[in-house]
Amino acid sequence: MDRVLSLDDVDVTGRTVLVRVDLNSPLDPTTKAFLDLSRIKAILPTLNRLSKAKVVLLAHQSRPGKADYTDTLGHARELGRLIGRKVDWVDDVWGDQAMAAIEAMEPGRILMLNNVRGDEEEASLKGGFGITGQANLVTRLASVADLYVNDAFACAHRASPSITGFAEHLPCLAGVLMQNELTALGRALERPARPCLAVLGGIKVDDSVQVADNMLRAGTADDVWFTGGVANLMLELSGHDIGLHNHDFLVRELGPAWHPTVEMAKALLLDFEEQIHLPVDVAANVEGNRVDLPVTELPIDAPLFDLGLSSVRRLSSAIKAAGTVILNGPAGVFEMEDFALGTVEMLNACAESNGFTVMGGGHTATLVVQRGLATKMGHVSTGGGACLDFMAGRPLPAVVALEASARHFQTTPARPLDRA
Questions:
Q1: Which stretches of 10-159 are DSSP H helices?
Q2: Pairwise CA distance, residues 357 & 187, whole Å
Q3: At a CB cut-off of 8 Å and minimum separation 6, what does 344 contact?
Q4: Could you give the percent of the chain with pLDDT greater than 90?
Q5: pLDDT digits (tens, 9 = 90+) for 140-188
Q6: Are 39 and 27 within 8 A, CB to CB?
Q7: CA of 10: how far to CAs of 7, 84, 172, 414, in Å?
Q8: Cis peptide before 299 (omega within 30 of 0)
Q9: Which residues contact 31 (CB under 8 A, 6 or more apart)?
Q10: Residues near 335 by Cβ (< 8 Å), separated by ≥ 6?
């Protein structure tokens, strides 16, 4: 990854700073009350660093048409309560009302604009910053701002105007959250303590296979342990009959990605046979009851919902002996108490490990927080899709834009950066 600029590179005092954040939070479907404030709390370190600037927040909540799509007024109120000072709000994104509110700001004030996903161009314009930089949201807001800060790692895999469009309009910096994500994930992928284990599960089978392919072929992972749906696929490809129910489920879930995923998975099993670890036993859901059986006794006419006890023990031992653990996705259908064993025990093993443990975003991060284990992990990512793309070696549009801005504004004498 090329260099990106951070808040350490610029004196923000008195500057007007656009800050893209991800405050997308679970809401009560009836009252729209916040059920979890984790993402709002996560941006506080960046806002504290910007306490002497004029801060304009760009945020989203869900998408138009969805039940949890709302304006950002509630987010502004919750943020103000958490940060201990008033957060102003305007029912506008880049129109005259927003522009006037920004122009009237004083240093130390925070203004939150309305949901950026209410803007048609934010939803329709996708691509590199040459395209997204033409959006009204970008050109209008850039005309009244001095700097842009991206602190929305969970959106880093999106190529929309508010994420990539400012690259050539303003000096673009990584916020504290974004910088911490890139540093921690970079440490795990580029210079991991050995042995480095990747534990990949969940229902995003194609993503897990691509992450394994990237980490094994790059020499990042010494071993890959598969759990969940991807383990079922690998068991089938290695010669075990997982049963028609489980096979058909995988085909439906993968859809058009079935054939390319199978081909990549077959190549992995052929090229890295010694480094890939599959379950030796599984837990099937037989009419609502957990039934453990060795993989040698497959097939069974029931869905496979978890690792078996022996597999859980083997995985836990490997995690505790590792120098680095990169974990993404649950080991089974953890929502059902009888099938939560694999997921719970592998997270407990990570919490007990002396190695550097990185928890992927999405369900994994939520589970870690719910179980009170976050402080025992090396890093808990805030981004599900962004974290997966990073681990799979796919460029993140937000990071590409930050890198481009760093190159552009460090070499443009007309727009010098002031060193802090």
A1: 38-42, 44-49, 73-83, 96-103, 120-124, 129-132, 136-142
A2: 11
A3: 334, 371
A4: 89
A5: 999 999 999 999 999 999 999 999 999 999 999 999 999 999 999 999 9
A6: no
A7: 6, 25, 10, 16
A8: yes
A9: none
A10: none
Q: Scan for tokens 């837990």, then name that residue.
A: 283
Distance between CA atoms of residues 125 and 133, nearest Å: 9
Phi, psi of 310 (to 5 degrees): -65, -40
Q: Which of 334, 408, 405 is closest to 174 using CA atoms?
A: 405
- Please say if the pLDDT value at position 420 is more than 70: no
Burial of 220 (0-12, 13-18, 19+ CB in 10 A): buried
Q: Give residue 419's pLDDT.
A: 42
| Domains delineated in the chain | 5-178+396-410 (3.40.50.1260), 194-354 (3.40.50.1260)
Tell me the per-residue pLDDT of 99-149, one tens digit each, with 9 for 90 and over.
999 999 999 999 999 999 999 999 899 888 889 999 999 999 999 999 999
Residues ≥6 apart with Cβ < 8 Å to 131: 125
DSSP structure class, residue 394? P
The pLDDT assigned to 412 comes to 58
CA-based nearest residue to 152, from 57, 65, 79, 68: 57
Residue 277 confidence (pLDDT) above 90: yes
Q: CA-to-CA distance for 312 and 310, rounded, in angstroms?
A: 5
DSSP state of 62: S
Residue with tokens 């000096």: 171
DSSP state at residue 9: G
- CA distance readout (Å), 49 to 5, 79, 180, 418: 15, 15, 14, 16
Name the more confident of 412 and 199: 199
Other Cβ atoms less than 10 A from the Cβ of 302: the count is 17
* pTM score of the predicted model: 0.90
Q: Which helix (H) or strand (E) element contains residue 127?
A: none
